[in-house]
Specification:
CATH architecture of one domain: 3-Layer(aba) Sandwich
Shape: globular
Number of strands: 23
Mean pLDDT: 88
Number of helices: 14
Helix content: 25-40%
Radius of gyration: 22 Å
CATH class of one domain: Alpha Beta
Strand content: 25-35%
Largest sheet: 11 strands, mixed
Amino acid sequence: MSIVLPNGVPFVVAEIAAWKAGAVPQPLSPRLPVGELAEIVALTDPALVIGDVEPSVSGSKPMLPARFRPAQDDGPLPVVVSPSWKAPTSGGSTGRPKVIVAGRPSLVEDIDPSADGFAIEPGGVALVPSPVSHNGPNMSVCMSLLRGNHVILMRRFDAAETLRLIAEHKVTWLYAVSTILSRIAKLPEDVRAAADMSSLRTIFHTAAPVPVWLKRQWIDWVGPILRELYGGTEGQAATIITSEEWLAHPGSVGRALRGEMQIRDADGRVLPPGEEGKVWIRRAPGTEPTYRLLGGQAQADDAGWESLGDIGWFDEDGYLYLYLGDRETDMILVGGANVYPAELEAALGLHDAVADSCVIGLPDDDLGNVPHAIVYPRRPVTEAALLEHLKSRVASYRLPRSFEFVAAPLRDEAGKIRRTHLRAERLKS
């Protein structure tokens, strides 16, 4: 069952109805381009499409508007169990979305234990500012409801409104991504000082890396209540780190909570602690598959190891560090030297005129590739000012060779930047 609805009660009702009917809910963003949405619906061939979508998208499938039709029979429903509790899409920065069908059925006893990792306590108040059509927010809503939480959904994230809702509803659990934390932190100091954050017991963040300076600023403000998860939608393995652990291992994303992880070099050799390479993951031996793909093939070796493309290393205590959140495909080879875009983006984020940025590599006849910075400013700023700001924070050979200022936000509604797409657009022009 494809659900193409924005954040709101109808979305939650549709998802629960899918489980009760034994269907697999597929959350889809209503902001997807029509062509992409139609392609996904054609791939999954749902029995029903719920949402205000064009007929060309749903084809001959029945479609319900956001207001649901009354049931013709109010008798008890038969007891059925959906074979999978979700089928989200995932594309990130690497291209067109793929459909990831979860390996677990829609049984409370299978889904609820994950709430422990998310630190969702029974009977609390959860605030989810991100679109529930994406995996992290969707899981947060589901598990919060299963644990008897009052769940607040925001139609659109607004930093000041988020603080108001936390105070008004005595929110105990907040879902966040790096963009949310950054935009709240950049509110005027008097606004943050006046905010009542005393009810919060957990701020759970995932989906994108949070710079060390930003996470430390949040811990200093609200206390050691931040909890971070690293892993893919596929769910083979994941790490979690608490604030207390992070303070002892700043910059780490934690130790493996489930599944297995290792670091390999370009030749496939497993590396010891302290050596940097590609992160490989797999589900624990003897466990059931955590997912299956529609419209794609999992890239795994003979032993079941897969990689999301992230670069990182383990310390002696088994804590994983990602190279500033970059992936192998993000790296820019500049005259034989490796330049990681996230390092530049983190440095640009320290400038008070920069709301967000994305650094990509563009071809260069002399050096092969050079860094190009795409900047979304919060106020006018010059290229010279940004270069001067970067020179004291970044090695000279890593500095952007060009800047571009844009008027629209760079991140999608999940808080991610489609770096490959942005680069492809600029290569065309």
